# Entry
Amino acid sequence: MNKFKALFLFALIFILAASTSVYAGDWVKLNSNGTKVWVDTSHWETKQKWVTSGYWTTQQVWVPEQGHWEKYWVDTSRWETRQVWVQSGYWDTRQVWVDTSHYETKQVWVDTSHYETRKVWVDTSHWEVQKVWVQDGYWKTEKVWVKSGYWKTEKVWVQSGYWTTQQVWVDTSHYETRQVWVQDGYWAQRWVVDVPGHYETRQVWVDTSHWETYKEWVKSGYWDEVHGTISVSKTPQYVFTNKHTLPDGSVCDMTLNISYALNKKVTNIRAIHVVNRYQNKGVLYVEPYSAVKNVGGTSGSAVLKFQYEKPGDENSTLHVYFDLEGGGSFEIQMDIPINGIYADSKFNIPDPVFKKSVKDSEVITF
# Structure
């Protein structure tokens, strides 16, 4: 007990010096001291993995043929019936005309019966009305034909030549229908088999690799400040020391009911009431004499019962600690005075004024 009280005093001094209340209700004060909690989201996941497996065995396997491609000439030459030109002929002795035609200068008659722009004989012959002498001895007017014209020198074509005997080529060339050989073809490729396909006995690997489904624990989570809801209530309204009894004769005590719902699992709930005695007589540290706890999850409850040997003033503080999974804790505080006046008949004591906490129940959310 002394060791626990010493540790409590050290913790209490540290909290009062180093932290402030995160939440303050009318009665319940929260002191989390900035506690960080690990919110565990670890879980099982279904995953698949590739399992490489197999075995060697002797099997008859088909070995494909082996070969190569080669280039070869496809000959499409053939006989065809075609019209062909046959060049033929012979030499023969024949009378042939030697053309000695040439130009000569001759006197020729230029016929001007047509229109032409050139210096030629211009025929001006025409009918004229003339006075002619009649032998009877008089002149008379009559229509007469007057013929006129003139000669000129002109270059004309004279057709001339002679016959002679010569060797001449008599051409008997002609078309004939003949059978002719047409040389033709093209290049192609073909597959030449070097080794035919066949079966062989070989060691082969039979692959039995496959996907397998397995469960894997995935550890995950995050740090967060503790938060949630806490409900606190106490009975009776006026708390007395164990020197007082109830109407049924039982010793007076106090019952504290706590329930919580947090973002972290609670492993334990501890409590100690620091009773500040009157007249500067020091403090008393009172632990519950009975504790019924339902803890271990993120929600739970506890019922704590206290009995007091000495009274305490309004500054008597009840500290309730919530220990969290994975370490860390926080506390709530409530001021609850303890009443304890008693006397016998020889003392003249006025009627006492009993004291109580500002509330008997409160719910805080933080």
In short: The longest helix spans residues 2-18. DSSP finds one helix and 27 strands in the chain. Residues 3-21, 343-347 have pLDDT under 50 and may be disordered. The radius of gyration is 74 Å.
